[in-house]
């Protein structure tokens, strides 16, 4: 389980009109410098440089969206870091979503911040619509997905409008049907997801982080543990053009 922080870095602004005093301006400068001059924070915090979105326009301002993540179990450490680095004084409200927005609400009161809790699935759909509208190269699909040799990713070159299905793989999995008016409903799901994968990996291999689990998985051979078409049919399944090596 990861906690995630989104930071908007406004570009080309000699003075931020929202900053009312020299001390506030200096504090803001220090916060930006601390967050953006490094990509790792403490033992487990990471800023995903490859995920940042540049030239984004939000409320008439242009800048870059940065994404920082850390294990939710490290939230007490994050709160302590926020206090020690003075990252909270110039903020009054933080929008938060997911289970952590409720679980750590009282703990964050010590930062003198107001938590504005947002519905997790509503923010998910809104975020997808924002990405599809503003960053078409962030969306892609796989061609020939059942053929390991020819399968490849392709960027979406045309506009994507509802209706469509969203499969959200997090700690668990939710499958959402998004209608033409952007309303949605949960049509299916399962409790088996990233949390199950991470937990099993920790128990079976002794790893501690999700990244370590992914690295170990990249070194393994899935055909030694996955059930393949060849295990069931003894070879290729021609009626559906499935190779023996296809994961069943």
UniProtKB/TrEMBL annotation:
Which BP terms from GO are recorded?
coenzyme A biosynthetic process
Task: Print the keywords alphabetically.
Answer: Kinase, Transferase
Q: Which InterPro entries match?
A: ATPase_NBD, Type_II_PanK
Q: Name one Pfam family in it.
A: Fumble
Q: What molecular function terms (GO) are annotated for this protein?
A: ATP binding; pantothenate kinase activity
Q: Specify the superkingdom.
A: Eukaryota
One Gene Ontology term, aspect cellular component? nucleus
SUPFAM superfamilies attached to this UniProt entry: Actin-like ATPase domain
Which Gene3D superfamilies has this protein been placed in? 3.30.420.40, 3.30.420.510
- Name listed for the protein in its UniProt record: Pantothenate kinase 2, mitochondrial
Organism for this UniProt entry? Trichinella pseudospiralis (Parasitic roundworm)
The lineage, from the top, is:
Eukaryota, Metazoa, Ecdysozoa, Nematoda, Enoplea
Q: Which gene encodes it?
A: PANK2
């Amino acid at each position: 389980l990861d906690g995630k922080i989104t930071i908007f870095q406004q570009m080309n602004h000699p003075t931020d009109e929202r900053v009312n005093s020299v001390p506030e301006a200096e504090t803001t400068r220090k916060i930006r410098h601390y967050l953006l001059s490094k990509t790792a924070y403490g033992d487990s915090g990471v800023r995903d440089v490859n995920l940042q979105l540049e030239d984004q326009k939000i409320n008439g301002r242009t800048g870059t969206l940065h994404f920082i993540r850390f294990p939710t179990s490290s939230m007490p450490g994050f709160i302590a870091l926020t206090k020690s680095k003075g990252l909270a004084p110039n903020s009054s409200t933080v929008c938060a979503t997911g289970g952590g927005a409720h679980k750590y609400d009282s703990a964050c009161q010590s930062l003198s911040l107001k938590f504005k809790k947002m519905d997790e699935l509503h923010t998910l759909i809104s975020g997808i619509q924002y990405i599809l509208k503003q960053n078409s190269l962030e969306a892609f699909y796989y061609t020939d997905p059942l053929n390991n040799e020819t399968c490849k990713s392709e960027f979406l070159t045309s506009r994507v409008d509802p209706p469509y299905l969203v499969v959200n793989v997090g700690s668990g999995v939710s499958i959402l049907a998004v209608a033409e008016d952007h309303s949605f409903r949960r049509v299916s799901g399962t409790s088996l997801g990233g949390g199950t994968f991470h937990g099993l990996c920790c128990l079976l291999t002794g790893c501690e982080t999700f990244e370590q689990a992914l690295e170990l998985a990249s070194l393994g051979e899935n055909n030694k543990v996955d059930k393949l078409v060849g295990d069931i049919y003894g070879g290729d399944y021609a009626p559906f053009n499935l190779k023996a090596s296809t994961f069943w």
